[in-house]
Amino acid sequence: MPELIEVEIYRRQAEGLVGRTVSAVSAPDEWFLKGATTPAALLSTLVGSLVTRADRIGKLLLLEVISGHRGANGESAATEAGERSTLGLRFGMTGRLVVDGKAEIDELLYSTSTADHRFVRFGLSFDDGGEMSMIDPRRLGGVEIAPDISRLGPDAATLSARQLCDAISRSTIPVKARLLDQSRVAGVGNLIADETFWRAGVDPTRSCASFEPVEVTALAARIRSTIKLLTKRGGSHTGDLQDHRHRDGRCPRDGSPLKRDEIGGRTTYWCPVHQL
DNA sequence: CCGGATGTTCACCT
DNA sequence: GAGGTGAACATCCG
Questions:
Q1: Which residue is nearest to nucleotide B7 (CA to C1')?
Q2: Which residues contact A95 (CB under 8 A, 6 or more apart)?
Q3: DSSP-derived 3-state class of residue A184
Q4: Which of A11, A75, A119, A169 is 20 to 30 A (C-alpha) from A82?
Q5: Which nucleotide has the least CA–C1' distance to A105?
Q6: Domains, chain A, ordered by start
Q7: From the Cβ of A138, is strand C under 7 Å away?
Q8: Is the pTM of this model over 0.90?
Q9: Around Cβ A171, how many Cβ atoms within 10 Å?
Q10: Is there contact between A269 and strand C, defined as CB under 7 Å from any strand atom?
């Protein structure tokens, strides 16, 4: 996916929805509805509601809405006027967001063009004639009313040394596995993780417990700076290591053959010479 | 044809 | 409880 950086781009797109009222919901794929979310619940929660905010925690996009008044005959509105709700949008690995026919991220690795209508999994229409849709070929994403955000760690883009310390304390697993755990730190995906460790000169297989306080502070700073850099460049795939993340790849810094292994269930590349 | 790809969740082990 | 593994989702690409 879309890691934190891409979802932040989606969030900015979604800010264009603030101030609009939902006129219709399209949920052609029930698999895409997560938790207790049903088509009926979406209808009663969203139709007639005003979008008030677009927030983001890690890779989760949150649309805040407030319900409005229904027709004079008071048709079945399960939601009271003025009631606030949150719609959570997850993008999996291949999900993209289209607002009013425009996609800020048109081409995504391992995905298809937004011109392909086959994979529209969810959509909202607005009273001004605009629309928002989610495209996700692999259906790894989803939407959920009132998603449980208590299970997400602090956002990686603003991660403090103290927060990272808490996230990796009392654990013996590889530090990269911990960073990928969204309940510990929210937003770091496989590409951001490999790029961060490469830039930090840190071996991603190292146990969390092996980190000295000064190293934790440095790593937290490196996570923030890497996200900032990749955001400026335009995506999680714009790191210096990216083009070398393949078998036979060599470290772009010192030319040594990269190590390849599975950490935290994800393929990991790192340089055995300068990442210690 | 096979393997693997920016992700998450869950069941089932040790 | 912690941690690891594999499955599931489904498509594209080399």
A1: A92
A2: A1, A2, A121, A134, A135, A136, A140, A141
A3: coil
A4: A11
A5: B6
A6: 4-149 (3.20.190.10), 153-270 (1.10.8.50)
A7: yes
A8: yes
A9: 15
A10: no
